[in-house]
Structures are given as structure tokens and as C-alpha cells.
Amino acid sequence: xxxxxxxxxxxxxxxxxARLNPRRTALVFEGEKTSYAEFADRVRRQATLLRAxxxxxGDRVGYLGFNHPALLETxxxxxxxxxxxxxxxxRLTAEELTFIINDAGIHSLVVDDALRPVLKPARxxxxxxxxFGAESELQGWRHLPSERAAxxxxxxxxxxxxxxxxxxxxxxxxxxxxxxxxLTHGNILWNNINSSLAFGTSRDDIILTAAPLFxxxxxxxxxxxxxxVGSSVVLMRNFDAGQALENVERYRATHMFGAPAMFLFMSxxxxxxxxxxxxxxxxxxxxxxxxxxxxxxxxxxxxxxxQGYGLTETAPFSAFLTSEWAISKLGSAGQPPLYSDTRIVxxxxxxxxxxxxxxxxxxxPNIMKGYWNRPDATAEAIDAQGWFHSGDVGYVDExxxxxxxxxxxxxxxxxxxxxxPAEVESVLYQHxxxxxxxxxxxPDTKWxxxxxxVVALHEGRELTIEALRExxxxxxxxxxxxxxxxxxxxxxxxxxGKVLKFALKEELSG
Length: 510
Known about the structure:
By secondary structure, this protein is α/β, with parallel strands linked by helices. Helices cover 30% and strands 26% of the residues. It contains 16 helices and 26 strands. The strands form 6 sheets. An 8-stranded mixed sheet has the order 2-1-11-10-12-13-14-15, sandwiched between helices. The chain has a 5-stranded parallel sheet with strand order 4-3-5-6-7, sandwiched between helices. Strands 16-21-20-18-17 form a 5-stranded antiparallel sheet, with no helix packed on it.
């Protein structure tokens, strides 16, 4: 029994919670409630099904689709076997998905109904041995619900080490090729401990999850932690502002994670003023700072914000701004959690004094093991002392609060989605009219930042934003497509030939 209690396997933890609290509600999805006992039974049966299909310890099991119980069941079923779960971004194109699936070497892939047409053209090029449909039956696909129901429940989850990889989450890189961040069982466990201590979580919490679970924020700020604590998750297939408000009132939700744009859209709904929000303990916001105006709008309804900062590579909880500091430290990302550290360094990796700007570095048991199949990128990101170099520029004030100023890697955050300019630029450069292109983020009141293409054209050519988006659409997810286009005679460059993106930002943001 002592070994089971100490077992770091996330699936074993969930199964133990189900034994302790079998009748409590684990999950609510589209009006259907699932108890912990029922959820655990599905996980055990799916684990047996995957094992019979050849999934072994260390193999990768993927999920492509909108939020659905099958995503969480697949995650825990894979981990029960010591396998690695790989959630896939449903906004990606077939080409983008092909690279990630084959790079991860996904053994078995579960796909929901809506995404099977997207995957169809790429399927012959994929390395997967088995393709499961998560919902309805379709020829050429194994039917997960019926095969799972026919399987025997797995007796027990396999034993793992806390440093064994539990999840690989892909994050785009400045080279344009996504990298898989390897998050261990220990990373996720310690993140949940940090989160629980910061948020003061309770077994009676009702977590409303509307953000996409392929994002580390939606998956691991509170959703996975709820299966640790024994609370309930109300899962939405996708975000709808009106439906989110309705679910808060109907299920008496206590917490919700989202990007600022999500909470803005909710506040703009006609029923916002009449919705009963009294159950909400706090809204947890990530992806961008919360504007003071939005804090005030929700504050007038008696709801406070807790803002956070983190990355996929940090599982993600790295800083937290509680509601008591929301105004006095407006713009801050907050303080580090109890079991993590933050420091600011210069270009020589020397720690800087409070108020001095440098690269934000993070260390703790929540830091990823490294990048999948990328030892070079791992060595570049994590130094010899175990500090993860975020690529973000910031400073800490005299009180130890973190402020983020810029991004070393020029990442654009639009509607809570990370967009890496190099990836977009590599596609736009293929357009025959384009001589030069630079992609930057320009402040936008709705999305935080607008993906903006600054383009120099070949002589005698013309280009519209509509034509540019149409050209890029087959190669890029919609959120990566430029929403603004600026034509220039030539891009500004320094003597070494590097494009001066800061100059473009200053010009277009003015």
C-alpha cells in the first residue's frame, strides 16, 4: 500500500481518487454527469484496449479534436500503461499535423468526428498504427466507445518514476518547426501542488473548462488538478461566451481559466448583467495581462481575477498575481509559486538587480525534462544550473513582483494563441509577389495583438490582405493568418542585415 500512495503515475493518482470518492461527480459534458467510479472504469477499459493494440511503456498516444471526455480518458489510459499522451492542436492544417504526429511517432491516435476530414488527406503519410474514432462509427476507423466497452478493466496502473515523461505538448519554435516539450509525471504533480496552494483549491470546487485542452493552461492550470483534489470539471466542447455564462449559473462554477479575450466576450453578452455569478471564487487568466477596464467590469459583479504567467515548458505555473494585488500591481505577472523560483539575467547569464530588465529564467520541479528528440534545443533552453530560459524579457520590482516587457523571440500573442513570426514568414515568402516580409504583433483592443505582415513587393505587383490570407490558409492555422497588411518599399535593417522589428512595431503601434 505504501508504494501505491507514493506512486507518481498521474493515472494511478486519479484511480486512487476514484476509489476514495467513487460517487462524486468527476466530469460534466453537455449535460451528462460522470462519476469518478464511471470515469475510472472507462479509463481502465481503454488502457486494456490500448495495451491489446500494442501500446507499451514509452509509446506515444495522441488525441486530435475539440474538448471531449475522450481526451481526458485517453490521457489517463495512456499514462496507466506508462505511455505518453500527445494532445494535438485542432486548429492546425493537415501539413502541420503531419509533421507533429510523425515527429512524436504517435502509435495510436484518437480523433473526434469533426477533425477526421482534416486528417484524411494526410493519413497515408502518418506513422500511426491505429486510428480510433472518438464518437460515431465510420469505415476505416476503429470505434473507440464500442471497443472500450468490450474490454476488461485494467487491474492497476504500471509503476513509473516521477521523471518519466507523461505528456508531450508541442509549442512552435522560432525556426518555424514545432518542438515537443516533455512534461513528466513529477512536473504535472508539482504544478498541481503549486496551483492548489496558490488558489486554495477545494474538493467542492466546480471547474469550468472552456479553453482548448491542447493548451497547457486549459489542461493543467486546474483541469488535471481537479482529478487530484477530487473536484468536478464542467467541460465545454469549445468556447461560446453565452454558453459559458449559462454554465456558470447552471452548475454553480467556482473557477474558470481563460485568456482575457474570453472574459471580455462573456462580459459583452446581453445576459451578462442578469447571470448569477455568485458561485465564482475567482477567474484565472493567462496568455496576456488583464486590462484594468476588464477587471472593473467583472469587479462590479463581485468577481475577481487571478492572473498567471507560464509556458508550456513550465507545466505552466510560473508566476501568480492574486486578486488583492490586481490593481496595485496592475500589469504585473505576479510572484513565483511556493515551489518554483524566478530570476532575471543579462546576456552573460548573470542575475540582475530589481528593476533591471533582462531575460526571465525559471527553475523548479515543474520545469520540463526537455524537448522531444531535440537535445540541442534542450541544452539551449535549460542551463547547467537547471534554469529554464524563457525568451521573455522582464524585471522584478523591489517587492519581488514580475513584470514582462517584451519577447526575445518576437512571439505574437493573439487571442491567447502563441504565433511565431518565423513560421508565418516562411509561408508568406513563398508568395511570388513578395520580396521581403516581416511578421509582427500590433496592439489590438479585441485580440491583444493582431498578426501583422509588413511586406515589400516585387516591382509592379499589388497585394491585398484578402489575397494574402487566401494564399496562406492551406498552410497555416487560421489564428496564425495575418489580419493586417502593410506595404513598404523596403524593410528597415541594421548594418548586419537583421530586420529591425522594433522599429516596425513602434511605427505601426503609434
